[in-house]
Amino acid sequence: MSTDLKTLKEKAKAYLPGMIELQKRLTAIPALAPDNGGEGEEKKAQFLADFIEKEELGEIQWFNAPDDRVPCGYRPNILLTVPGENSERSLIIISHMDVVPPGNLNLWDHDPFDLVIKEDRIVGRGVEDNQQGIVCSIHALKILRDLNQPPAIGVKLLFVADEETGSKKGLQFLVNNHPELFNRDDLILVPDYGNEDGTMIEVAEKSIIWVKVLIKGKQCHASVPHKGLNTLRAVAHFIVESEKLSSMFPESDPTFRPPTSTFEPTKKEANVENINTIPGEDVLYFDCRVLPQYPLESVLEAFREIANKIENDLGVKIELGTQMADQAAPPTPRDSPVVINIMKAVKALRNLEAKACGIGGVTVAAHLRKKGLPVAVWQTITKTAHQPNEYCLLENMIKDTEVMAYLMALST
Ligand SMILES: [Zn+2]
Q: Does one domain contain both 39 and 125?
């Protein structure tokens, strides 16, 4: 590339205060999905669009997915397009605007939506997942503009809604309703997962299935348990039985991290309000990440086997449902230009060898991979996404901005 790496690195570092400020403004707009009790991403999208306009970074287009559960009636997806020397193909960087709820506020050291700078990091809900992607891609573009270097191919920054609750109003909506936005020759980067030094490029994902287990028993006074059927006890038995799932789906693939399928009990809905009542109904959920070779129907069948055993043992009735079932998409080839270019960038800027690998996904990349589009999921992260006191290292913001600027300048 014509731009020397030293200048690029200096520029990225000089933008740190701007990146922190943008992070602070974004964090203050909690873009929670209606499924998580929020109003969606409209305010955050409007703020970003205004910011991009003020910075004169390029043309913005809105792709609104109708959603009557939020006050404005839609979930926004916004696209910033910057023409390149050759705009027949583009480097598309996709970040999501929505965040997950903060969870138990007592576990946070401060207000999750009021960004705090602590030494080498910034802390707040969304700073890493996925504002780091938003902020780095915008600043990479600013660097290119400062250097007076039009990108070699088109650059598109896409900021999507609804990643955290399934992408139906986000990337899935775009892929289905605006397929013209994506091209098989494009280089698509999703900066929404990675590892601590940026050497992991995700190209394959596990299938995902969220299983709902509804257990029906008989409510009664806790002093006469023989008159009821305690569904909380059945929940406990179900969870213990579910440990067998790993041996029912034993295959292992070292390119995935972790290498095996996982079956985790996660959420349990509230049951009775008082301690002296035996619950007659309980609902629990499992989050399962399954290696792509297993059909998801076989996972549901395994759950049914467990349910049958618990029904026989305890006399309860169990209904199974799925909240989400997504069979894994075909992997992105390891020699796709986007994968190769990230490897080159990481080598040139960090002197590290990045590798292609698979994860327990599913990231938004799956929606594109299912259409045969090559996507690399890559960023440099601390992996504090969804946790209390989620943070983003200042250094990671600078370094990922460098890589993105390099990709914009280098990709042909
Ligand atoms: Zn994310």
A: yes
Q: Which residue has the tokens 């190769």?
A: 340
Domain match, 316 and 358 both: no
Would residue 389 be called left, alpha or beta, if left means φ above 0 and alpha means ψ between -120 and 50 degrees? left
Active site residues: 98, 163
List residues, by chain if needed, whose CB lies under 5 Å from ion ligand 1.
129-130, 192
- In degrees and rounded to multiples of 5, residue 283 shows phi and psi of -130, 125
Q: What is the pLDDT along the chain (412 residues), one digit of tens a residue?
A: 456 899 999 999 999 999 999 999 999 999 999 999 999 999 999 999 999 999 999 999 999 999 999 999 999 999 999 999 888 899 999 999 999 999 999 999 999 999 999 999 999 999 999 999 999 999 999 999 999 888 889 999 999 999 999 899 999 999 999 999 999 999 999 999 999 999 999 999 899 999 999 999 999 999 999 999 999 999 999 999 999 999 999 999 888 889 999 999 999 999 999 999 999 999 999 999 999 889 999 999 999 999 999 999 999 999 999 999 988 888 899 899 999 999 999 999 999 999 999 987 767 788 999 899 999 999 999 989 999 999 999 999 999 999 999 999 987 6
Q: How far is the CA of 168 from the centre of ligand 1 (A)?
A: 15
Give the Cβ contact number of residue 89 at 10 Å: 18
Domain boundary among 292, 326, 360: 326
Q: Are 165 and 208 in contact (CB under 8 A)?
A: no
How remote is the CA of residue 215 from the centroid of ligand 1, in Å? Answer: 32
Quote the number of domains for the chain: 2
